[in-house]
Amino acid sequence: MVLANPSKPRFSSLWQDHPDAIAAFICAVLVLLGWQSLHLGWVGAAILILTAAYVIGGFESAREGLTTLFEEKELDVDLLMIVAALGAASLGLWRREYFLIVDGAVLILIFAISGALEGYAMQRTERSIQGLMSLTTDTARVIQAGQEKAVPISALAVGDQVLVKPGELVPTDGLVIEGVSTLNQAPITGESIPVEKAIGDEVFAGTLNGSGALRLKIHQPPESSLIQRVIRLVQQAQTEAPPSQQFIERFERGYAKVIVIVGILLGVLPPFLLGWSWEQTIYRALIFLVVASPCALMASIIPALLSGIANGARRGILFKNGAQLERMGRVRAIAFDKTGTLTTGRLEVVDVLAVEQSTQPLLQVAAALESLSEHPIGEAIVQAARQQNLTWAEAVNGQAQAGQGITGEITHQTAVVGKAAFVQSQVKGVPPTLIQHSQQWEAEGKTVVWVAYAGEVLGIIAVADTVRPTAARAIAQLKRLGVEQIVMLTGDNARTAQSIAEQIGVDQVHAELLPEDKVDVIRRLQQQYQTVAMVGDGINDAPALAQASVGIAMGAAGSDVALETADVVLMADRLEQLEHAIRLGRRALIVVKQNIVFALGFVVILLILNFAGSITLPFGVLGHEGSTVMVTLSGLRLLRN
């Protein structure tokens, strides 16, 4: 029997998942071995090893540089790096100063590491789309000639009738033509409380059906459903290059053009204009290519951003790439999702008012009836009763009225729990105080549940999605930092949203929004404030997170799609971490600017010395590498708190 080698498929999978990182690692090992071989005097072995380092580490950059050159007729930094590295290697072979070959290999190694980091940042788009696709089912139950038939979603047509059984995902958008049920729309609209759906109401694909069976009529093609629009919005927003990225690409190509043109002129004109010998001219031109290489310029950015990312990670703030750390420092406006972000996302009993002094009989009757229901409001009431260590008699003959309430018998007496009109129609009279408090609580965005027993009203219970304890303080901190606009986006009703906004100090409220509406709000904010952050936790937030300059997801409570789409993740769901994230981004911007000024300034000094004929190639390489080390160490300052 032949045993399979498990390491081979494992390495093959590792290579497929991390090709750039593995190439950079191998290049680093080869550079170290080549450098050590030169120290031992093994020149031949060192040249072979360093040649392999050039090929492995520089292949991707050379391919991209040549592709840009031939297809777009543009020069970029990748090609300039290859030219500078090969120039250093050629000069090292020519003058037998073999350590110059190591310098060229180091240039290639730095760019290989940078390329690997960029590759990881680009992998999130496909995972985000796969996460969204998991919300959709492959088939739907179509009613044909009175019989159920499973057909692919793609085969559905306008006018088809679809059956959705209790507990199933709705397969596509449609209108209810038969049945009543409660749907959990939180994944799509962000509504914290399940919504009652009856004949004539629209339901969305990806929402979860409750306890009732629904028959739907398809009124639009499946590809036009809300969830499919969400998927397309995420794709579009993540494939659009942000303005800062476009600026960096233009700068790199412009810089490369200038260096190449000046390098050619320096390699041709001095013998005619300055009387230099051709050997001196080529020598100075190669020094120019080495000292003008943007290695120090690139090192002024990446180590600083990586240090900032490591600093954030220690605080539970996960930046998915360095560009988002920079953008975090430029944020001028922040939009928050409500449910699960500014609030806990869990319904709780927040107020209880009984006709009698004690609230225990009120909670006992309500818990006895609601224990027969699986509705989230009922679960909140039962949980509140349990927290007070209450016990209650078992309710029997329970009957739920969809969208109204529930009735039953407790110790041979009729009990009723539900909406005001439903309960009041079954009792003798209603105390005016209860009506007044009920209206006040509803105006505050709370859901009010009335409770009656034996034909008498016992009282009312208010249930609400509670605000996170740290939300108000976090928003106050952001305002002190100078964030100009703080906005709340939610699929909930305007009354609930406005009540929460007043509690925590939000500037603007946009309520009753679908996912695409949130994207529109983000776009309008970007037109006014340029750099806008979006904080969310649900699937319905994914398009807005992708559209925002910086998408921030709540790590513990967030959905998989929100976490994959976002650029920054607050791993502990602590909103106060936003202040540290913004401060860290601003520090990163300052350090990067300082490093860029230093790197460019040092390049200018070395170029002046080179034109004056005052430096040798070893000194130029030393100055170039020294400036790279200096800006790298400078970037490590961001590791400090």
Tell me how many strands there are. 22
- Class by alpha and beta content: alpha+beta
Characterize the biggest β-sheet. Answer: 7 strands, mixed
Low-confidence spans: none
Count of discrete alpha- or pi-helical segments spanning 4 or more residues: 26
Strand order of the largest sheet: 10-22-21-20-11-18-19
Basic shape: elongated
Over the alpha carbons, how many angstroms does the gyration radius reach? 33 Å
* End-to-end C-alpha gap: 59 Å
Kindly report the average pLDDT value: 80
Walk me through the topology.
Elements: H1 7-17, H2 19-39, H3 43-71, H4 77-95, H5 99-121, H6 124-133, E1 139-144, E2 147-152, E3 161-164, E4 174-178, E5 181-184, H7 186-189, E6 195-197, E7 202-203, E8 208-209, E9 214-217, H8 226-239, H9 243-268, H10 270-273, H11 278-291, H12 295-299, H13 302-314, E10 317-319, H14 322-328, E11 333-337, H15 338-342, E12 343-354, H16 360-370, H17 376-387, E13 395-401, E14 405-410, E15 413-418, H18 420-424, H19 432-443, E16 447-453, E17 456-467, H20 471-481, E18 485-489, H21 494-504, E19 508-510, H22 515-529, E20 532-536, H23 542-547, E21 550-554, H24 560-565, E22 568-570, H25 577-611, H26 617-635
Parallel strand pairs: 11-18, 11-20, 18-19, 20-21, 21-22
Antiparallel strand pairs: 1-2, 1-3, 3-9, 4-7, 4-9, 5-6, 5-8, 10-22, 12-17, 13-14, 14-15, 15-16, 16-17
Helix pairs in contact: 2-3, 2-5, 3-4, 3-5, 4-5, 4-11, 6-8, 9-11, 11-25, 11-26, 13-14, 13-25, 13-26, 14-25, 16-17, 20-25, 25-26
